[in-house]
Amino acid sequence: MAFIPNTDQERQEMLDRIGVKSFDELIKAIPESVRLKKDLDLPPRLSEYEIIKLMDSYASKNITATSHVCFMGGGSYDHFIPSIVGSIVERPEFKTAYTPYQAEVSQGTLQAMYEFQSMICAITGMDVANASLYDGGSALAEACFLANAHNRRTEFLYAGSINPHYRQVADTITAGKNYTFKEYKNADGTCNHAELAANISDKTAAVIVQQPNAYGNIEDVLEIEKIAHAHKALFVVIVNPISLGILEAPGNYNADIVIGEGQSLGIAMSYGGPYLGLFACKNELVRKIPGRLSGMTEDLDGKRGFVLTLQTREQQIKREKATSNICTNQGLYMLAATVYMATMGKEGIKEVAYQSMQKAHYLAKEIAKIPGFKLFNDKPFFNEFMVKTPVAASEIISEGTKAGFLAGIDTSRFSDCLQGLLIAVTEKRTKDEMDAYVEFLKKFAK
Fold first, then answer.
1. 307 in the same domain as 207
2. Most C-beta atoms within 10 A of its C-beta, which of 139, 145, 210, 218?
């Protein structure tokens, strides 16, 4: 934003024009208790070189997955990102590209969107995918909007534990819609099938499951699918896309909508964002899908071309009847994910998933040997697992930072979560790093 200096005379003319006598009268609605009573205590002005040094000194205080060995997960994972990803997304023709309304001058962006959609369909087993949403949380909210638009029902059932951040975002975005959210889970966080089956009704718009769930466990999605479709509710599955390298694709067990967080597809952790929302569905729901879809066609000369086939700029046309008011997408991170998936290929993503799973199980086995530490349950998991600890998880995390570890997530931060230490492992973790982490945890043994 440009700084435009105004003279006292110009300021008075503006006040006169809007009908107030003074600046104090203009802001009289602002309580005195929150007004600034004195000038800001700003440091002396600095040169560009001095500013760069100052900012570097601040940045060096950050704790990152580069400065520490990372065992944090919960929706954001420390996967390896091939250097080609950064090389491509930094190209100015992509980095500065805007909304591709004019297909004739946006072929590169539209092709990237088309390739991204095709790859997401391939790994999820779904018919159609959009060209991304903002993040996993907003994708969950959009799935609720689509389900409501499809069957006009307003009740949503969580089958097991859902990432609390996703739930909070969905609650915020859907506020005012009179939606009802209910959760059915066992004491260990996995889905309580009996309660789900007993409480689903003809008012249920969708049954939503996270696979793996918020605590890393694999849910019995085949049973949950039967319960959902027995009452003609939509079946929504939240996925970790890397896990689909070894887990069954949701399309193969009759999911209606598949959503997820795309951060693990070549996007840095970046202190929590911005990230990439994934959204795919069955073909019969395509007219209600949020966001943008790129399609491939031929021009009059028979040459391949790409067009913006569908877009939800519906607030201009349908207004309150619109399925969604999303009118943009995470274009640059969508491109990053496309480059990552193309670089890794089918076997590469499978290898990342396999290594993440095997290393996680090795670490879990070693931690379970430490007196006072215990796995939350014995159910199958992918690359993330919950541990009961002999001391507060917050203490372990605090001491871990000093020892060079991002030790995990203290789930007691969330009021409706089970309490423990949530640990994630990716293909980047070495045996030496995991063994050193186990030795660190032994300090808390009881």
1. yes
2. 139
